[in-house]
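Subject: Sanity check before I submit

Could someone independently write out the structure tokens for this chain? I want to compare against mine line by line before I put it in a report. The sequence has 339 residues.
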Amino acid sequence: MTITSSYSGADAGNYTVTDQSSATGNIVPKVLTATASASNKTYDGGTTASTTLTFTGLVGSETLGQTVGSTFDNKNVGSNKTVTVNSITLADGSNGGLAANYSISAGQTTTANITAKSLTVSGITASNKTYDGSTNVTLDASSVAYSGLVSGDTFNGTYTGVFSDKNVGTGKTVTITSSYSGADVSNYSVTDQSSTTANITAKSLTVSGITASDKTYDGSVTATMDGNSVVYSGLVSGDTFNGSYTGVFSNANVGTGKTVTITSSYSGADVSNYSVTDQTSTTADISAKALTATASASNKTYDATNSASVTLTLSGLVGSETLGSTNTSTFNNKNVGYR
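---
Independent answer below. Compare away.
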């Protein structure tokens, strides 16, 4: 440093002074203090914080730049979490502020919030199924996507689903209920996948056990059907499924083990949920119809025989049907008389 000197005193004029013109010394940096202010952040899986320092102790209007390293006490979501300043690097500022003229120590603390990160769930599918009378559905989460999940975080989902109703249909809505677990689940604000679609296809149902009643010949092919012992193989317990059956013989004529062709129709709340294999036929007998006959004999001239000529009138014929007949008739003896 350069020294400028002046002297005084009663005897000052008696001396010729050789001044000391210079000397050496140190200027040490001024110690600053600082108040820390940290910004809130959205969860990102790390503890890094963004912090700004307000300096106390700067000379005049000088300013300084700053680079601050700071961390939250942990990575997890929370309010008023402690933030600690770990490192401070000063930089030259404005109005003559030089970083070299100041010093500061780290260790300041403040608080800030970490808020939950948005996470969207997608990719859950439902398996098609055959009608079983329930709304149960099997979900497939093998391709589930967690959009927004931080790499390395532990986040697991469990999913259940139900169809909108039990009935057969395509593109049916499946409502998904989700639950989540894992060490990091509380750090996310989750938008669930609420639904998907799948098909319910008709269940196979086979009809059997319908019988036809034997009948006496009546000139028609109409058969009386009996569905009292009908069996619906494949019917879900509790479902409403009813059948109505009509039948016709292959022809109207007498015979045993005759084919009866069955025509079926079905009704009931659940009939549309089944793919029905009908019972198409059964067998029954048509037996001959018994007739009665009235005989009318012709008078004759004695011919030494007891043969008679008789005409029969038949009762019990169906509709307008007629029959021919041949008969052998005799008088009770050959002699003349009223017989």
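---
OP: Matches mine. For the report I'm noting this point. The chain has four domains: 12-115, 118-201, 204-287, 292-330.
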